[in-house]
Amino acid sequence: MRIQMQIFMILGIALCLISAAHADQANAVYYNPPYTPSACYQNQDRGNMVTGVSDALWNGGAACGKQYRVRCIGATNTAPHPCHDGASVVVTVVDYCRPQCNGTLNLSKDAFAVIADTDAGNVKVEFNQA
Ligand SMILES: *[C@@H]1O[C@H](CO)[C@@H](O)[C@H](O)[C@H]1NC(C)=O
Ligand SMILES: *[C@@H]1O[C@H](CO)[C@@H](O)[C@H](O)[C@H]1NC(C)=O
C-alpha cells in the first residue's frame, strides 16, 4: 500500500511538472482604479481586466495589447491560502511596471480579485499568452 502511494505521488509530481512547463511563472501585485492613463493607451479605457508588465515582458512597448491568461498558484508571503482555486482571468497589457515593481505582473485590482484575495497583495501566478 505504501509503495502504491509513493508511485501515485511520483506520477502526480511528474504530471504537475509537465503541465507547468507550458506556462511561465511570476509574482503578481495589483493596483487600484482608475486604470487610466496607461503607458500604452494614455486616457483610452481598455476595461477593467488589464495589467502592467515589467521589463521581462514589456519588450519596449511591444507587449501592449497582448492578452495573458493568469492563474494564482500560491502565496508569496504570510497569507496562508490567497488563491481562488481553479480561477483564471484574461488580462490585456496596457501598462509598464517599473523596475521596482516586484511582480512581473501588476494586475488591475478587478483582475487580481478574480484569482486571489486582494488582502494578500502579492501572489505567485502562472500565465500563458491567451
Ligand atoms: C502598478 O501600477 C500602478 C499604475 O501604473 C502604479 O502606480 C504602481 O506603482 C504599480 N505597482 C508596482 C508595485 O509597481
Ligand atoms: C519589493 O521587494 C523588496 C524586497 O523583497 C521590498 O523591500 C520592497 O518593499 C518591495 N517593493 C514593493 C513595491 O512591494
From TrEMBL:
<protein>
    <submittedName>
        <fullName>Uncharacterized protein</fullName>
    </submittedName>
</protein>
